Amino acid sequence: MTSAQIKEIQSKIGTTPDGFWGPKSIAACKKHLRGLGAGKDAPSTDQASLTKAYGKAGDESQLVNLDVTGLGVKYEGKAVKTIRCNITVAESLKKVIVDLSKFPKGQEALAQYAGCYNNRPMRGGSLPSLHARGAAIDLMAGTNQLKQSWPMSANMPFEVMEVFASHGWIAAGAFWGYDGMHYQKTK
């Protein structure tokens, strides 16, 4: 992101708009997104809590096909009709997608859908990913990769993060500082 874009975010989250993304900006960003509802009513991230909330990793009986027809969701340029996700996050995810479909930056993110359910371990680890439970979604993967720092090099629009937060989802870019493509329904 540009310095001007970072200043715009800083103004919105109530910190000094200086274009420098440091500890104060990070703390203010997390506080702002939590205030919108990020992580609300979500389980802890330990495996026992995740299994209790979403079922075992890879258990496809916990998945539903979420209808996203006509909402602008695209994978590699092709329209997506359904997203396989965990039944417990389906209603919330549908609301997120509907809200994103209503404004240009949200539409841009939806047009770069990169997946939801994928029975695999976390990258670089052995524990199951939230994707293995269908409780995470990736958007704009090409410019928000795992090791890219948000907002310094990754460019996930802050407005997209706010929509997810308002429905209880965590934006990895804002909370971890990297993996800006990733959103999950956990604390």
Biggest β-sheet: strands ordered side by side in the sheet:
5-6-8-7
Structural class given helices, strands, pairing?
alpha+beta
Query: How many helical elements?
Result: 7
User: What is the overall pLDDT average?
Assistant: 95
Give the strand content: 5-15%
Shape: globular
Helix content: 25-40%
Uncertain stretches: none
Query: Terminal Cα separation, in Å?
Result: 26 Å
Over the alpha carbons, how many angstroms does the gyration radius reach?
A: 16 Å
Total number of strands: 8
Would you mind describing this structure in some detail?
The protein has a four-stranded antiparallel beta sheet. Strands 1-4 form a two-stranded antiparallel ribbon. Strands 2-3 form a two-stranded antiparallel ribbon. A hairpin with a 2-residue loop joins strand 2 and strand 3. It is 36% helix and 14% strand. Helix 2 packs across helix 6 and helix 4 packs across helix 6. The protein has one domain. The relative contact order is 0.17. It is globular. It has 187 residues and is an alpha+beta fold. The protein contains seven helices and eight strands; from the N terminus they run αααββββααββαβαβ.
Task: Jot down its keywords.
14% strand; 36% helix; alpha+beta; four-stranded antiparallel sheet
Provide a compact summary of the structure.
The chain has 187 residues and is α+β, with helices and mostly antiparallel strands. It has helices at 3-13, 23-36, 47-54, 87-100, 104-110, 158-166, 172-176, and strands at 63-67, 74-75, 78-79, 82-86, 113-115, 136-139, 170-171, 182-184. It is globular.
SSE arrangement:
Layout: H1 3-13, H2 23-36, H3 47-54, E1 63-67, E2 74-75, E3 78-79, E4 82-86, H4 87-100, H5 104-110, E5 113-115, E6 136-139, H6 158-166, E7 170-171, H7 172-176, E8 182-184
Antiparallel strand pairs: 1-4, 2-3, 5-6, 6-8, 7-8
Helix pairs in contact: 2-6, 4-6
